Sequence to fold (686 residues):
Amino acid sequence: MWPIFTVTLLIFVVFFFLSLNIGKVSVNFADMIAIFLEKMNIGQGFSADVAAQKQTVFWNVRLPRSILACAVGAALSVAGAVMQTLYRNPLASPDVIGVTQAANLGAGLAIFFFAGSTLLVESFSFCFGVMALLLTFAIVSRLPGSSITVLVLIGVILSALFQAGLTLLLYLSDPYSDMLRINYWLMGAFNTANWNNVAVVVPLVSIGIFFLILFSWRLNIMGQTDEEIKALGINLPLWRFIYVLFVALIVSVSTAAVGNIAWVGLIIPHIARSLVGSNQKQVVPYTVVLGAFFLLLIDTIVRNLPTGEVPISVITSFIAAPFLGWLIFSKHKRGVW
Amino acid sequence: MKGKWQKLLLCTLALVLVLMLLTSCSNSENNISETKGKVIVDQLGRTVELPEKIEKVAAPHIYGGKMLFAMGQKEKIAYQLQIGADTEALAKVDEFYGSLPTVLSAPNGVDSPEGLLALGVNVVFTDAGKGEEEAERFQNAGIAAIAVSGETFEEVYETARLMGEVFDCPERADEVIEFIEGLRNMVSSRVKDIPKEEKPVVLVCGSGGVYTAATKDMFQHQMVETAGGINAGANLTGKWANISAEDIILWDPDYIILGSSFGVDDVESVLADPALQTVTAVKNKDVYIFPSTLGWWDFPLPQSVLGIIWTAKTIHPDKFADVDMLEMADSVYEFIYGYTYTELGGVLR
Fold:
């Protein structure tokens, strides 16, 4: 596993710096280093010769955007990996627990009722995402001994309700202002990324990912049947809650910051497993790197398109959906699916 | 006992069948379109046969309804989608307009042809942007459906001529065209000598805040170009393109204009945006929001000629020093709606 992990990490790091160099405004490596050193208070006056425009583009536009893309990519991917194992379902993704739909509804409500500022929209989105999780487990707690199927069904029910609420909001909203704003938000984009987003998303996502990696070894057990897990003396509901709590945290905070981004949480874990096997101790950290790399790559394409910014989910879907199709065919041929 | 229930069920079914037949007969009467009137071609190129007598009309969208006002056909309106600050203001001061049903469906709902038929509507002005299907939906219900569009002033004039033909008031169509054209000419004559290289670059932003730009396909493009500016998003297509800070930095607009009714960003938030600090408009604090408190001046509507005048005055203040925007707004609103901007409760920000 380690050679693949190291190579991927290396490619990711190289591409990260390369992507900062790619853009509509030319910023070369020397400029980037000078600006970085100056901003870090390491080299005073280093960027004196670099045009203010380039400094702004590098420091206030590209760097926070790239960091945010990596953080969100890592978060959605690792969330998908955990959910697929936890739910024992290769098609599970963060959407299964209704967190994404709840976060969308929260954002929609903030726009509809309060013509909300970006901060208000993000706060509502996050709170609704967490609320969905708490609601799921409040219901599950009333059904002691319930299987994972019950959790899936509750997620489906809540998702449908939140989605219906959002559809109603869209139906009622002014088509020339609120509806457009909600739609822009739902499409998901990094074009409004700034250091404030980074300051909120990166620490929370890092905490979530840290704990998910820390407990990744236990996921190997959590992927077994309920009876097998209980036979090992593991408190199943508690551990299920812990995993889903961290997944909900990182998905809510990511969706709140950048809106909906499709397919990442579904496809990246599959690619990761096809490269490093199914040991969760390896899959989880690898999805972090691969997810960050994938979304950074997609966002670099999006922000360099000449025709404005295409919603990022369009590109992720165009790439990921055929890939999943290929994966299904190849696994079917090998008799896996 | 069983036979009794069966008879009851049979009677109920028979009753339902009779009722359905009666309803379908009455509907088919409604569906018979009176096609003895004139034949016109709408803005989608559809041939529409008008009823001999136009009883009531409807416009389930903003533009068509406002054009009916401008054409002096307010009394014929039975229904118009009423959203926006100017519509609310009109409903407050105009007793007839205020008495109209506000919503047949929700703002984004599909207006039911049956709802319009119940209001006695026999002509509907549909949004050409929604295509032929939207018009045919009403046409199939026996309502003459005329598709209209006003994304450019030329289209606005076409709508005026079309409505002039429909309502037999071509002289009013000429008045509307002359009035708007006169104001456009006033602006273009003052900016026509400005060399292209001296024209300021103007970024007009929309519903997604400062990171959405008006494209060359939009009314706002014509607004900026007529006002003597260069639209920053002139190379983009579609409606309200998503853009990044890097695009804005690259275009380096001299002016940033925020859409009047869209509230994501305000002037202060754009001026404080760290990503835009090197942009000329931000450095010079030339970030503006449309001053109207009565809704859109940057939207395909007859009063949007004010958007051109205000943009021209904002980017070329020396050439329009004599233009008083409040006086101008009063005269335009009075011409179109019969009430001045001030009478409608509007103030300039």
